[in-house]
Amino acid sequence: MTTMKKNTAPSAETQIEALRVAKATQKEGQTKEQTKLIAQGIQKGIEQYKKQQKAKARERDKLKKKTQQVKNTQPNTTTDTPLLAPHIIYKQHWLPWGLVIASWIGFGIYLISASTL
Predict the structure, then answer these.
(1) Which domain range does residue 24 map to?
(2) What percent of the chain has pLDDT over 90?
(3) Has residue 102 got a pLDDT over 90?
(4) Domain count across the chain
(5) Is 86 a domain residue?
(6) Cα-based angle 37, 7, 42 (whole degrees, multiple of 5)
(7) Checking phi first, is residue 90 left (phi over 0); if not, alpha (psi -120 to 50) or beta?
(8) Which residues contact 23 (CB under 8 A, 6 or more apart)?
(9) Is residue 117 part of a domain?
(10) What is the pLDDT at residue 115?
């Protein structure tokens, strides 16, 4: 069973980074208390972001581990049979070719009619 730490003190790096960002965005006439409150809000945002990234990393690790287990449990049949290249069929639409043919026919008719005049 996992235990969750509650009310842990934020790291010194997070506090310094939050204070630096708060001072960088500080406006004229802003008091130190207001800057500290802004720094605390930024600090909470950084902590929340880190928690989200850790959760995503855990999920990625779980999926990676799961796919690795599935790979290892499957029988090794790929080494027994030769690898076949997949057969890819490209279908082209008839409209571009129809327009090319129609334009050549039109060009031919134009040439014939221009030479008779």
Answers:
(1) 10-74
(2) 43
(3) yes
(4) 1
(5) no
(6) 30
(7) beta
(8) 35, 39
(9) no
(10) 87
